[in-house]
Input
Amino acid sequence: MRLNTEFMKETFWLALEGVPITLKITIIALFISIILGFILALVEIHRVRVATPIITAYVSLIRGTPQVLQILIVYSLIPSLLNAIVQKMEINFSVWDIEPIVYAYIVFTINTTALLTETFRSALLSIDKLQMEAALSVGLTPFWANVRIIFPQAFEAALPNICTTTVNLIKGTSLAFMMSVKEVTAIAKTQASYGYNFIESYLDIFVIYLILCLLVQGIFAIIEKQAQAHRKIVRSV
Amino acid sequence: MGSYRVFEPSFIWYAIGKILPYIGVTFAVVITTLIVSILFGALLARAKIRGKWGKVIADGYTAVFRCIPSIVLIYLVYYGLPQFVEHFTGVDINNWNKGIFIVLAFSLSFSAFISEIMRAAYDSVDAIQHEAALSIGLTETQAFWRIIFPQAVRFALPNIANIITSLMKEGALAYTIGLIDMMGAGKNIINMNYGSYTLETYLGLFIIYWVLTKTIEILFAQIEKQLSKGRKTIAG
Output
């Protein structure tokens, strides 16, 4: 066995073409999940009747089950469900024309939202109650006290966990091939099975995922530094 | 995909009954991987705490393997390792039990995770504890096993629970190379019914996995409570 370097180079560039898809899923799922997760965390904390137990159950169910199973369930449930609705309402629309990547958006958003809800919940709870009292005492309304004082601190506290979740999200997108999405792993898998060049193909994407994750960690390190920058100024004054 | 058929809730229970006998395979993967990862993770953690070049290598290893998706590791080990071994030793390991490949693949990443937990747990114990232990005449080994280790374990407990549940959840990928664990059994049920009870079977699996992770979480929370009790009496 000698590594087929020619094949390896070729596959590396091919697999790189899957990176935009991987990133697209990651960014869209992350963007929606941050907003949704934050709102759900607020609702969960404020003990809203009916809503809070539902959110708690949702978070527990998603965190307690394998991601691959969530993918398989969504991918077998949603198309049939949509189809049934479309048929019943006699809409002229073929569910089977929906791009597979849409299901990837749905699955990874459902999953990441649950993880981030938990992250934001603990981040919000980590903020000292005195911060709120101090903000109110200087005349801020409760709304502005939250927006200006509590939320920014909570976001800062949540950043390391958001970074971990993002890394796990990228790793998770490697399962999108199960929904026939042509992302990095899917391309390597197809390439590998042509000529049984398994080691070469999977080493290729090993490197690609490594680069992606290191980049994400680097970006978050910069954001965290930015977020903490204001602290030093306050302290040194 | 998706024939028009009414959802059959009773099939969920049927599926659970058919899947549960395979719970042993799932746990065998979890426990074996855990043992291998603890041994290798301890080496890494030791290097991180004591080593010079060892620390660089161990940190690098952890950074790399934290980034690689489990499915890539599984494919690399399952399809790649036999080619590799055959070339260098001429031994054909293609017929090895699939569980071995799964355990090897997961051990690569989980020993990295576990080494981080061990390092953090070790760091959590105050250095004074170590000095105090030596000052009353304990040897290094005694100081570690009798003083540092018990305290570190208590600190690490929540993380250990996390590792076990995530190992079990990631382990669900083993079916992708044909291991018949709970997921594999579920896939078999689906195939035997020509795909008609897909959703019900998956929901059965979903319930089983959720109950298992919850049980592990509750169990570890109890253990933690027990261990914290002792701490209070000493402090008080």
Q: What stands out?
A: The radius of gyration of chain B is 22 Å.
